[in-house]
Amino acid sequence: MSSAPDDTISITELSCPETPKFTKPWHEDVFSKLRSYIIVELVRAIYPTFESAIKHDPRTIEALFETMRETELVMFENSNDEV
């Protein structure tokens, strides 16, 4: 994960969802912006103050986002519909 020019981590970059290995017809109706929002909310549920921790402990925050991207991907791929 590369850092932003001012040496801070981009939340937008960290929360970018992974591409599913397989797709279902309803997947095309779910925008990546929504999936990204879900990833940020999963991180926030575990670490409510992650924004302030990014500067002090970037590797931990990057690892947390990586885990939540993987979790979101599993949920997205295993869901039967978008509801």
UniProtKB/TrEMBL annotation:
Could you identify this protein by its name?
Answer: KIX domain-containing protein
Q: Which InterPro entries match?
A: KIX_dom (IPR003101), KIX_dom_sf (IPR036529)
The Gene Ontology terms for molecular function here are:
transcription coregulator activity
Superkingdom, natural source: Eukaryota
Write out the entry's keywords from A to Z: Nucleus
Kindly state a single biological-process term from the GO annotations of this entry: regulation of DNA-templated transcription
What are the residue boundaries of the KIX domain, all occurrences included? 21-83
